[in-house]
Amino acid sequence: MFKRVLFISGILVLGMVIGNFFLSNSLADNIDDNSKHEIEIAYPQNEKGQTYGSALDAPSYEGEPDLIKAYGIDGTIGYVKKEDLDGPMPKTPEEAVRLSKEAKPREIPLYDVDGETIIGKFIVGE
Fold first, then answer.
1. I need a surface site. Which of 45, 93, 108, 110 has the fewest CB within 10 A?
2. Count of CB atoms within 10 A of residue 120's CB?
3. Are 49 and 32 in contact (CB under 8 A)?
4. Phi, psi dihedrals of residue 115, rounded to the nearest 5°
């Protein structure tokens, strides 16, 4: 009786090991396949064709929408333009260092979803 229980237990363990091996390899293949493809978010567009939404949904910096959801200084929910948020871009490494050292909070407009109507203010760098 004891040998029979051991034999059945051994078969069950062997089955679980083999099953986990194939399952883990299958999952690893899927992870590898998915990592090769960037997930594309379909942001909605306003009447001017600008995309809008949360930057948290973007798979990368390049995938961020034109208008990024933000909370204004008074708590108003609106959108900031990506280019306003980025601010001046340095042309040389030296300029990047200088801009970094001189960085201070700055105020930019908070827009309605139309990308034109200013509904508040947003502070960058606080």
1. 93
2. 18
3. no
4. 75, 5
Radius of gyration of the chain (CA): 26
Q: What are the domain boundaries of the chain?
A: 1-37, 52-124
DSSP code of residue 6: H
Q: Give the predicted TM-score (pTM) of the model.
A: 0.64
The pLDDT value recorded for residue 67 is: 97
Q: Which residues pair with 51 in a beta bridge?
A: 45
* Positions of E strands within 48-117: 52-53, 67-71, 77-81, 106-111
Kindly report, residue by residue over 62-116, the tens digit of the pLDDT.
999 999 999 999 999 999 999 999 888 889 999 989 888 888 899 999 999 999 9
User: Among candidates 29, 33, 31, which has minimal Cα distance to 21?
Assistant: 29
Joined tokens for residue 84: 């306003």
Per-residue pLDDT at 17? 46
Residue with more model confidence, 123 or 10: 123
List residues bridging with 123 in a β-sheet.
Answer: 107
